[in-house]
Design a protein that fits this description.
The structure holds two protein chains of two kinds.
Chain A: H1 9-15, E1 16-27, H2 66-78, E2 82-83, E3 90-93, E4 103-106, E5 113-122, E6 125-138, E7 142-146, E8 158-162, E9 169-175, H3 185-203, E10 215-225, E11 235-240, H4 243-262, E12 270-274, E13 281-286, E14 296-297, H5 308-316, H6 322-333, H7 337-346, H8 349-357, H9 362-380, H10 391-402, H11 408-419, H12 425-432, H13 440-453, H14 455-462, H15 469-479, H16 486-497
Parallel strand pairs in A: 11-12
Antiparallel strand pairs in A: 1-9, 1-10, 2-5, 3-4, 3-14, 5-6, 6-9, 7-8, 10-11, 12-13
Helix pairs in contact in A: 1-4, 3-4, 8-9, 8-10, 10-11, 11-12, 13-15, 13-16, 15-16
Chain B: H1 9-18, H2 23-41, E1 44-47, H3 49-64, E2 76-80, H4 107-114, E3 118-123, H5 157-164, E4 170-174, H6 181-187, E5 190-193, E6 214-218, H7 221-231, H8 249-256, E7 265-269, H9 279-294, E8 298-302, H10 310-325, H11 346-357, H12 360-372, H13 379-402, E9 405-407, H14 425-429, H15 436-441, E10 445-449, E11 459-460, E12 463-464, H16 484-488
Parallel strand pairs in B: 2-3, 2-4, 7-8, 7-9
Antiparallel strand pairs in B: 1-3, 4-6, 5-6, 5-10, 9-12, 10-11
Classes of the chains: A alpha+beta, B alpha/beta.
């Protein structure tokens, strides 16, 4: 394996100005494929969701999925794009076994949406990423190369083809060259993809799960010396499939390009593969000459001409966009930028909102998700949303605390029980016997016992050292195995000892 | 006893409906005729004896149980081997699809079945419909039943020959640049290229998607109209299909048979005459135009200057689309696979298969189209050709402002001998000189017999404005016309 020279990141930025272009493919969550009625659901038996059209059988014809067009327009509108009054599909011709027709039906020079932007936050500042276009196309089938060491075609003895994915609707969103991000370019790339993912999810057009390949990113990057107008030669790092990887890939390429350029070399225009394990990229296919896809308008389809009325109807129906929503929630919840960032980083925003919707006060909802549950997700190494507890259950726990049935310590145990699969919060309370001791008689007896057993401390309290009451409260809590309401215990102790709290 | 193979489709359907004969007897008579003559004619690539008899039995049973029969129930038909038929081989005249049994019916196939039409089998054609003589079939040429040493036209020579040889009263063709009309002209039959989008292309194996159009072939205008009504109509599976009611062409064909052409304006296209047009063809054509005048039509000569560029534009657009449409034949999912011995890559197997599976004309057009679409050439070739297409459409529009129908010879010559133009593709391409403009503009056109210059058939080609079903039967009573077969009896086969 060849060693790739890298320049230290700070040095690279001192010498060069990075220019990025991001191409993101989003698989739409339509029930059927782009041009036929086959199901798009994941995980089916290979080649079980296919028909003459998505297999490219002789004689078959495509018909455009109207829902996919609607989704594309929604994405375009949410990205502040113009929506084409009239646009066509084109054929992108090239041979590859996972492409049934040996051409991809895609939009070429007439995208459905163009000239937009997406504002993203980096370190509390807004950075505007300009959008070149968003266009519709179809996914290819999936090749599995068997027998090679790397899973790539090189060295494989045979390949398996699954056409279930062939024809799934894709939207490709292409940015204009992102300039002026400087040292924050990798962060901008990550923030852009994150913001785009939130937006796609908010629109309800895709689940945009990067780990499932529903959203894939290509990072194009070039460097130019500071002050130079002309862009340098770019590399295209393909299929960078997590937010963290987007940032790492951009960073790695900046360092690699800088090393090449500063040693007097030339950057090769090529596609590169990203490696999750060490964050590096390696050379893929060198583009000796631009591949000639022989695009021409798809004669089997009629132009897509969304009426202005329809477009305006869709615009009016757009949901609150993620960035606007975040700003609103931050204000509603009274959070600092830093606190809000923690909530976002934890991926807890929707869970907190749902918990509030289920009746919990905002501070309680945030406290449980950002405390106990975030910690647990972190320990387990899972996504917080994947924890086996629902916002409604968390809201119930919060309600039990606020009505005095549970204290925080008990509430944590209830949550633990829910996570362990012991049932609803109330069931866990019953099974584990976690109810706060609220029987005044029993509590009074425990208080009396504690005073009797700690006469010295009781005396201190009587004499005015109210702070010493904490030790008595602790004794009562211990005696009740933590199931008493500490505040009530304190009240009772002070009452018994004739002091004001 | 009547020879059932000599009836028209309309007569056949009436005889079955009245109980005079049965659909099974009709089917059997045609299967017998095929067995007797097709070894010489080679119109059929595949005869579906079982399927045909089963379909015929179903019609007889429906009649016996008092069920309603459509206007073509029980009538046999020869289907060009470019439409998919579930479980029945579909080759497009190519080795690359040898043995392929499609898992689905074309919309046209389904509609024929629903109409009770009895599909006898699949007919020979130039490979992927590329040609004008049926010599480009991978399965050998078809003979013209009038003279077996001559071509039956193409690409749909199998369908036209089946009609002329009385192997079927109805046939289906596809017309991308004249593949229905030119075979009709040289076999003395009727061939209609419907308006683009009138007949679904779902299941029609594509040659050139923006030009291909399936349509009816028959021995009489009425039969062609009956068949058109059975196969036409909107299909949600074909985005380019016309979403409007099918024009009442049967009614028009019956009305046209009165022979009264008063008030009808006929335009003779000036560009389609002169050098290269066989004298006998022009003579019969001129006589036919004179007959139209006698029947009351107002005849004018007019010019459609852009038609001169139709041929070069066609030979850029059609191969361009074909180069893309035929890319799917890669040995991965169906059809021929060559060289898969475990040592070769998928790419190599694809290349070897295409080398072995495609014939010379198909390869020529794939290369032409690949070149025309290449970066740097697209604007000069494909782009320019599309502009010509627009100009041709405008010429038609201008002409239809002045006349109701345009006429010209269908093809410049009568049937030429098999082999004569095999090594001269440009001479072969000239056979479609007069038919191509309608494909580029998308409007309806048909070829009618107008006589037999020196013993062979010459056709005449009236063009109609797009979607206009009012006058398709206009010249159906020209000299010879429908009666060619009646008077001359069976051809050579």
């Amino acid at each position: 394996m060849t060693v790739i020279d890298l320049m230290p990141y700070e040095d690279a930025l001192t010498a060069y100005d990075p220019v990025m272009g991001l191409e993101v493919h989003v698989e739409l969550g339509t029930a059927t494929k782009m041009f036929c009625g086959c199901s798009t659901s994941l995980g089916a038996e290979p080649n079980s969701q296919v028909c003459p059209t998505c297999l490219g059988m002789p004689g078959s014809l495509p018909v455009v999925n109207a829902t996919a067009v609607e989704s594309a327009i929604k994405i375009g509108l949410a990205l502040n794009c113009e929506i084409a009054e009239w646009c066509r599909f084109a054929r992108k011709n090239y041979f590859y076994p996972d492409m049934p027709k040996n051409f991809q039906t895609s939009q070429y020079d007439e995208p459905i949406a163009y000239d937009g932007y997406l504002d993203v936050e980096v370190d509390g500042e807004t950075f505007r990423v300009e959008i070149e276009r968003a266009h519709m196309e179809e996914d290819t089938g999936k090749s599995t190369h068997v027998g090679g060491a790397t899973g790539r075609i090189h060295g494989a003895v045979h390949s398996l083809l699954d056409y279930n994915r062939a024809g799934i609707p894709l939207i490709e969103i292409v940015t204009k060259p992102i300039v002026g991000a400087g040292e924050r370019a990798p962060q901008v790339a990550k923030a852009y993809v994150a913001e785009l993912r939130e937006l796609i999810k908010a629109l309800g057009v895709s689940e945009a799960r990067m780990e499932m390949g529903q959203m894939r990113c290509d990072v194009n990057l070039s460097l130019r010396p500071h002050g130079q107008e002309k862009f340098g030669t770019r590399s295209e790092t393909k299929n960078v499939n997590s937010l963290r990887s987007v940032e790492r890939a951009a960073r790695f390429e900046i360092q690699r390009h800088a090393a090449v350029l500063s040693s007097g070399g030339t950057v090769v225009q090529e596609t590169r593969h990203f490696h999750e394990d060490d964050g590096s990229t390696t050379s893929g296919r060198i583009k000796e000459e631009a591949e000639d896809y022989r695009y021409f308008p798809e004669p089997d389809l009629v132009p897509v001409a969304p009426s202005r009325e329809w477009v305006e109807e869709l615009r009016a129906g757009l949901p609150e966009l993620p960035r606007v929503r975040r700003m609103r929630l931050q204000a509603d919840w009274g959070l600092s930028d830093h606190e809000m960032q923690s909530v976002l980083n934890a991926g807890a925003i929707d869970l907190i909102v749902a918990t509030i919707d289920a009746g919990a006060p905002a501070d309680q909802a945030r406290k449980w998700w950002m405390g106990e549950l975030a910690r647990r997700a972190n320990e387990d190494g899972t996504d917080i949303a994947a924890l086996p507890i629902t916002p409604a259950q968390v809201a119930r726990v919060a309600a039990l605390v606020s009505d005095g049935s549970l204290n925080d310590k008990l509430a944590r145990q209830v949550i633990e029980g829910v996570l362990a699969g012991e049932g609803e919060p109330d069931e866990v309370v019953d099974k584990r016997g976690l109810k706060v001791v609220s029987d005044e008689g029993a509590l009074g007896a425990a208080v009396d016992e504690a005073i009797a057993a700690n006469a010295g401390i009781a005396e201190k309290v009587r004499s005015g050292k109210v702070a010493a009451a904490g030790a008595l409260v602790g004794a009562v809590m211990k005696a009740t195995r933590g199931q008493a309401d500490a505040a009530r215990v304190r009240e009772l102790i002070l009452e018994r000892l004739g002091v004001q709290g | 006893m009547t020879d059932l193979t000599r009836l028209t489709a309309a007569e056949t359907a009436a005889a079955i409906a009245s109980g005079e004969t049965s659909a099974v007897d009709v089917a059997q008579a045609h299967l017998d005729r095929i067995a007797a003559v097709d070894e010489k004619v080679n119109a059929f690539l595949h005869v579906d004896t079982e399927g045909a008899l089963a379909a015929a039995r179903a019609v007889d049973e429906r009649r016996a149980s008092g069920g309603e029969l459509g206007p073509l129930a029980g009538v046999p038909l020869a289907l060009k081997d470019v439409f998919t038929t579930e479980g029945v081989p579909t080759t497009c005249g190519s080795k690359i699809l040898e043995g392929w049994k499609p898992p689905y019916d074309a919309t046209l196939t389904r509609r024929l079945k629903e109409a009770g039409v009895v599909v006898l089998g699949k007919t020979n054609m130039d490979e992927f419909a590329m040609g004008s003589s049926t010599e480009n079939s991978a399965y050998g040429p078809t003979g013209n039943p009038w003279d077996l040493t001559r071509i039956p036209g193409g690409s749909g020579g199998g369908s036209s020959a089946a009609l002329a040889a009385f192997e079927a009263p109805l046939a289906i063709g596809t017309d991308t640049g004249g593949s229905i009309r030119q075979p009709a002209a040289v076999t003395g039959t009727v061939g209609v290229k419907p308006t683009y989008g009138a007949v679904s292309r779902y299941g029609l194996v594509a040659f050139s998607s923006s030009l291909d159009q399936g349509g009816p072939c028959a021995r009489t205008v009425l039969d062609a109209a009956l068949l058109h009504e059975a196969i036409a109509g909107h299909d949600p599976l074909d985005s380019t299909s016309i979403d409007a009611p099918v024009p009442a062409v049967v009614e028009a064909a019956r009305a046209g048979a009165t022979g009264d052409l008063r008030g009808v304006r006929v335009g003779v296209v000036k560009e389609f005459s002169g050098e290269g047009y066989q004298a006998g063809v022009m003579q019969r054509f001129t006589e036919s135009v004179e007959l139209l005048r006698e029947l009351g039509a107002e005849v004018v000569e007019l010019s459609c200057p852009s038609f001169t560029y139709a041929m070069p534009a066609y030979y850029l657009i059609a191969p361009s689309e074909a180069s893309s449409n035929l890319a799917r034949f890669d040995a991965m999912r169906y059809g021929l696979r060559v060289g898969d011995d475990g040592t070769r890559s998928a790419e190599e197997v694809t290349a070897l298969t295409r080398e072995a599976g495609f014939g010379a004309e198909v390869k020529r057009r794939i290369m032409l189209g690949t070149y025309a679409l290449s970066s740097g050439y697209y604007d000069a070739y494909y782009g320019q050709a599309q502009k010509v297409r627009t100009l041709i459409t405008r010429d038609f529009e201008a002409a239809f402002g002045r006349v109701d129908v345009l006429v010209s010879p269908t093809t410049p010559t009568t049937a030429f001998p098999i082999g004569e133009r095999a090594d001269d593709p440009l001479a072969m391409y000239l056979a479609d000189l007069c038919t191509i403009p309608s494909n580029l503009a998308g409007n309806a056109a048909m070829s009618l017999p107008c006589g037999l210059p020196r013993g062979r058939s010459a056709g005449r080609s009236p063009d109609h404005r797009p979607g206009d079903g009012r006058r398709p039967a206009l010249p159906c009573r020209c000299r010879g016309g429908d009666r060619v077969h009646r008077t001359l009896g069976p051809p050579a086969a």
